[in-house]
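ingest -> validate -> predict -> emit
validate: passed (alphabet ok, no gaps, 267 aa)
predict: started
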Amino acid sequence: MHLLDNLHEARDRFDKAKAYAQKHQDDDEAQQEVQKWDKRLRDAKKARQDEESKNWKPPTENLRMNYLEWLDHANVTDDKLGPDNPHWYFRLIGCGDMGDHTADGSCDKGSSEWLFDELTFFQPRLGERRPFYMIEPQQQKGIHCRFGMKGVIAENHFDLSRNAIALLGGQRRYILAHPNQCNNMNLLPRGHPSARHSAVDWANPDLDNFPTFPKAHVNEIVMQPGDVLYLPTNWFHYIVSLELNFQCNTRSGGERLYRKEVNDCGF
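emit:
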């Protein structure tokens, strides 16, 4: 039986055993059944993690270049696009004070601290001057600006912090899902290099290997220049660059909202 089938079966049997045991607290055999399937579920998760990690290859390569060099690669006609051609993604980071003495810009080689002057609505001010988008300014994790060529995607995943995303040019398609869809997302397991990301190729999903994926409920939005998207803690998001575009985002702390949902699927 496929490792993913083992995992789905173990999770289903564990959930049923747990539900039965909760209604029959005095039934020792029912409690033992929960323990048995809890162990099998943990073993199935570990086996899948080991297998996924063994076959994993980094999806991207980091290179150093300036904006004009990136633009020369990224601003191409549609005949130069497609899965067999390289895709180029440019990023700037303003570190700010991200903890661990990073206020000197040491979180990124050649950091772009001037982003805090340009994007005043992301400045981590306190009190009455607190920006609308900064829920916990003291927990800000820098400003990240991302420039994408048409066709670039960010695989579906969730983050452990609040996120405010401002689109400044072009269009981006966001497919969003509530954390209660976690089990349908078929995430790469904890400990995997791409943990918190979906193992499903959303452009060409393998429904035999991922039979729960069609059950996922999602929302869709196409962001336009000037739009700001608030992404709560633990919400899933899959991103497609519909044309040459750029966005800047900042995170400002997290909350324990929806922790049960992500804990139940292994995080």
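The beta strands are 89-94, 140-148, 153-158, 163-169, 172-177, 219-223, 228-231, 236-241, 245-252.
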